Every structure is written in C-alpha cells, then in structure tokens.
Amino acid sequence: MRNFEQTIENMAEQSANAFICYIDEDGCPVTKAMLKPREHEGIRTFYFTTNTSSNKVKCFKLNPKASIYFVNPRLFHGASLTGTIEVLETTEEKKRIWHEGDEIYYPKGVSDPDYCVLKFTATKGRFYSDFHSDDFNIK
Prior knowledge:
The chain is α+β, with helices and mostly antiparallel strands. About 20% of the residues lie in helices and about 45% in strands.
C-alpha cells in the first residue's frame, strides 16, 4: 500500500470545504457540504464547527457512524474516510477551535448554545487517483 497520508492532509488543508455523510432517522445516508476542518491530527482526527440545532447533530447523537470526503478536482483525486463523530459541547473544546469572525455564525460567541464541535475519528479510508482506488486502515 502506498502512503496517502500527506496527500490527504494537503487536500484537507487546501480545500475550501469537505463533505460529511451521516445516517438520518430513517436509516438513509445524507451528504452535507461543510467548511473545511478547523483542525486535524494527521488523517485520523478532524474537528469541524457546526450548529447544535442542525439535523446532522441530532442524527450523530443517535448514530455516530460517519464519513468525510475531500476532493482535489484539478488532479481528480478523492479521499473518503470512514469512522465516527462525537458532538462536543464543552466550553474548552469550543474555545479551542474558535476563530475570530465566527460570530457571523454564532452571534453569542463561544458560549452560544447553538455552537458545537464535531470530532471525526477515522478508522479506514479509500483514496482515488489515476483511475484507481486503494483501501487502507487507519491506526
């Protein structure tokens, strides 16, 4: 297996957004475009901000299974990571990834009850390039 980690990290950092997938209350998959992750630890853990009142948060609390997808359309590369999402609502976690200007989304600031953090932890992935896909596990 080739090492895709650096390529996927670059995709996550350079893309304007990511796609996050979850299972809704009816058991159907849903895909949602998100702003790119605020932070990541290699390709195993990614942190996103979102609204606590969103449908995806409600669904993640019922079923934490998720996937995220990054794409580089210029090179026609894609990376799908599969794992789980934790909804983090502690002040410490919210402060850690808060950026100046987030008030546009969360007017009450870090303490806004409609602001939370999604922590995605990957267990496996699939990388696509050059008309070929490779599956890999993440430790």
